[in-house]
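PROTEIN DESIGN WORKSHEET
SECTION A - STRUCTURE
LENGTH: 441
TOKENS:
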């Protein structure tokens, strides 16, 4: 059985094909396929005549672009040049040109025929706001001066019937000076009146001040994450002051020990988490406020002249603060401790020591018949302790990130902001007066 030939079939092979061409697929045999219009040439103009045998065979891309797209083409190239004034394609004057466009019969629109051409132009003089005077821009304020165009927050608008609200003036130290003076006089009266007229009332004032100081310190220390128990500190502080008043220096130390132990026992009920941190903060508060403040009770409890001892100590501290403030504002140039308290200067410290030394020398000579140079030494020591106490509290506040312990006293901040100097000054005064003016009985 013979295999099938894949090239075998009914049709003849290539070398057996007849010489005549096959039948064309279109009916018109007399028209060659390349003479029919197709594609873009359908819109290029009238039917181009068939190519003659003597014309060169030039393709559509062998003709320059200006001649290929309806422009004048030279003879001998496929297609005939169009008559003069007639262009082929869009934009020409031939079929499909500008003359045959749908909008060619409409006249062109001129600027004079626009709807707004009959309206008169608007000038600056015809504006409705031309009759108002121009607004003048204010010059820029100098650096450091507050803006004048907008009123400050909290101030009402001034008028003829309502004058502008007067703001309280502040000094260079950043305080409201009138309020600070008024509060300072009130505190002085609260101390001196019971001290001279009813001494047991001074104990109540002292215990109340110690309680407020403990509350402010506990509240401020909580910013650091420590939570010392408040109730045992308050109870231990009042107990410490009372023991010092009635039983002397040994009872003062006992009161401190009882306060710390009571705080530790109270804190055990909250669990071990943060115990060491809270007890450390509680011990700091117990030593700083009630223990140091208890020396004021020791001064006042001295027989016969306890009120005078408290008086010379308070006067020395007040003179130190006043002299330091006046000298620092007037002559302060060299910072004393810029990282702790930038506003304290060595000139202010000199003013504090000078004022306290002069006032203490006079007071101790008049009240206790002590030689003036011993009185001046007392003033220098108390002033130095007061400044150290102020710097110590400033360091604590800076470490805690607070400006004032509280806002209880206008112009001063908290009560601890006033007790900081006294708390360091009373132990120094107690020790020096125990040597310079021995207690009788």
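SECTION B - SEQUENCE
RESIDUE ASSIGNMENT:
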């Amino acid at each position: 059985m013979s295999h099938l030939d894949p090239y075998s079939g009914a049709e003849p092979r290539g070398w057996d094909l007849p010489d005549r061409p096959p039948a064309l697929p279109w009916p018109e045999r007399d028209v060659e396929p390349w003479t029919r219009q197709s594609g873009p040439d359908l819109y290029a103009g009238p039917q181009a005549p068939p190519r003659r045998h003597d014309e060169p065979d030039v393709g559509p891309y062998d003709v320059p672009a200006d001649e290929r797209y309806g422009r004048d083409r030279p003879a001998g190239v496929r297609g005939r040049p169009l008559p003069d004034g007639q262009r082929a394609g869009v934009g020409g004057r031939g079929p499909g040109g500008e003359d045959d466009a749908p909008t060619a019969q409409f006249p062109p629109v001129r600027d004079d025929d626009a709807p707004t051409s009959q309206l008169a132009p608007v000038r600056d003089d015809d504006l409705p706001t031309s009759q108002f005077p121009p607004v003048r821009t204010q010059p820029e304020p100098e650096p450091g001066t507050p803006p004048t165009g907008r009123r400050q927050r909290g101030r009402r608008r001034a008028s003829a019937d309502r004058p502008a609200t007067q703001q309280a003036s502040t000094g260079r130290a950043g305080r409201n000076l009138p309020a600070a003076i008024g509060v300072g006089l009130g505190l002085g009266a609260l101390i001196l009146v019971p001290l001279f007229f009813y001494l047991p009332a001074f104990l109540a004032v002292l215990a109340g001040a110690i309680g407020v100081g403990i509350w402010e310190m506990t509240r401020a220390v909580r910013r650091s994450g420590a939570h010392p128990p408040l109730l045992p500190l308050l109870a231990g502080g009042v107990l410490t002051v009372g023991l010092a008043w009635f039983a002397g220096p040994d009872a003062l130390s006992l009161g401190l020990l009882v306060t710390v132990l009571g705080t530790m026992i109270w804190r055990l009920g909250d669990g071990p988490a943060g115990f060491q941190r809270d007890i450390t903060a509680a011990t700091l508060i117990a030593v700083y406020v009630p223990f140091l403040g208890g020396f004021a009770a020791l001064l006042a409890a001295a027989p016969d002249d306890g009120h005078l001892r408290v008086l010379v100590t308070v006067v020395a501290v007040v003179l130190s603060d006043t002299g330091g403030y006046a000298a620092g504002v007037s002559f302060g140039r060299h910072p004393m401790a810029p990282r702790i308290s930038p506003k304290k200067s060595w000139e202010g410290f000199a003013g504090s020591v000078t004022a306290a030394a002069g006032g203490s020398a006079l007071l101790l000579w008049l009240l206790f018949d002590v030689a003036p140079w011993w009185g001046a030494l007392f003033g220098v020591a108390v002033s130095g302790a007061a400044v150290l106490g102020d710097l110590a509290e400033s360091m604590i506040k800076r470490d805690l990130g607070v400006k004032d312990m509280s806002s209880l006293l206008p112009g001063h901040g908290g009560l601890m902001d006033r007790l900081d100097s006294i708390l360091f000054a009373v132990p120094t005064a107690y020790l020096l007066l125990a040597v310079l003016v021995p207690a009788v009985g």
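SECTION C - NOTES
The first strand starts at residue 335 and ends at 337.
Residues 34-45, 69-79, 87-97 have pLDDT under 50 and may be disordered.
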